[in-house]
Write a structure and sequence with these properties.
288 residues, 7 helices, 14 strands, binds biotin, alpha+beta
Length: 288
């Protein structure tokens, strides 16, 4: 007889308890379920799992400060203070998504580390394809889109001293089994479940991501920088020929046609007058 354990993670609002996403017990992001399926050698070998946490990136930073090894992974079923890029928050519905932060100790100069986020985006895109048979586009620098809506975001945070990196935390939020989104996000966000019309195993997506990310990261550390960036270009419809408006912050914008990546992962944008500008950081707010 096969016994299937189902865990209903409940949301407590005032006096009422509303069941949220139903998670098969074996799809909780517990080390016991992940380790037997893990094909990476270092990434995810040490896992800290939380049912609820403020932000996995903050927890990973604390483990890093205590000397944790490269590849240490922090996972949560829910985040109460999930953070996104540019000071935004990250919706972290319990049990529905993958909220993961991985600790890296790369041997490169700080200016080279921006590429890491692109590498992670490629690994997520490959993992979604392999585990769910869905093709996620990559919007520079590191948003993953399905049908033009965001299904994954990546937040990398670096700690450096003088000209040396102490560590980098790569935080990944993947909308896996969300059935819907609050009104203010519904036009811009999606999940693997909404696009694929079925639920997916978070453990399978995560294990595939860790395998791909470790392979690409090791390749990048060995110096194969151009090859790794080429993977990004191959997976992104934003790499060449897309008309974009990039918000650079402080009221500045760049408009033009994308023309590939620089070796540091900056986006090249060809302006109307033919000049090419390299954008180091920003947000593509409009495209066609
Ligand atoms: C973005 O697209 O703005 C980045 C979103 C990153 C969200 C992830 S979820 C796990 C990790 N912990 C956080 O607080 N943020 C990242």
């Amino acid at each position: 007889m096969k016994i299937v354990l189902v865990v209903v993670l409940e949301e407590v609002t005032g006096t009422t308890r509303r069941p949220t996403t139903t998670v098969m017990a074996q799809d909780l992001l517990l080390p016991e379920f992940i380790h037997p399926r893990l094909k990476s050698h270092r990434f995810g070998r040490t896992i800290h799992h939380f049912l609820e946490i403020g932000s996995t990136n903050d927890a990973a930073r604390q483990f890093a400060e205590q000397g944790a090894a490269e590849g240490t992974l922090v996972l949560a079923e829910e985040q109460t203070q999930g953070r996104g890029r540019l000071g935004r928050s990250w919706l972290s519905e319990r049990g529905a998504g993958i909220y993961a932060s991985i600790l890296l100790r790369p041997v490169v100069k700080p200016r080279g580390a921006a590429v890491l986020t692109l590498v992670a985006a490629v690994a997520v895109s490959e993992a979604i394809e392999q585990a769910c048979d869905l093709h996620a586009d990559i919007k520079w620098p590191n948003d993953l889109l399905l049908s033009g809506r965001k299904c994954c975001g990546i937040l990398s945070e670096m700690q450096a001293e003088r000209d040396d990196i102490r560590y980098v935390i790569v935080g990944i939020g993947i909308n896996v089994n969300h059935s819907d989104f609050p009104e203010e996000l519904a036009q811009r966000a999606t999940s693997l479940r909404i696009e694929g019309k079925q639920t997916y195993s978070r453990v399978a997506v995560l294990c595939e991501f860790l395998r791909r990310f470790e392979l690409l990261y090791d390749d990048w550390q060995r110096g194969n920088r151009a090859a790794v960036l080429q993977h990004w270009v191959n997976r992104s419809s934003f790499a060449f020929g897309k008309q974009v408006t990039v918000d650079l912050g402080s009221g500045k914008k760049v408009e033009g046609q994308t023309a590939g990546l620089s070796e540091l992962g900056n986006l090249k944008v060809k302006l109307a007058d033919g000049r090419v500008e390299e954008v180091m950081s920003g947000d593509i707010v409009a495209w066609r």
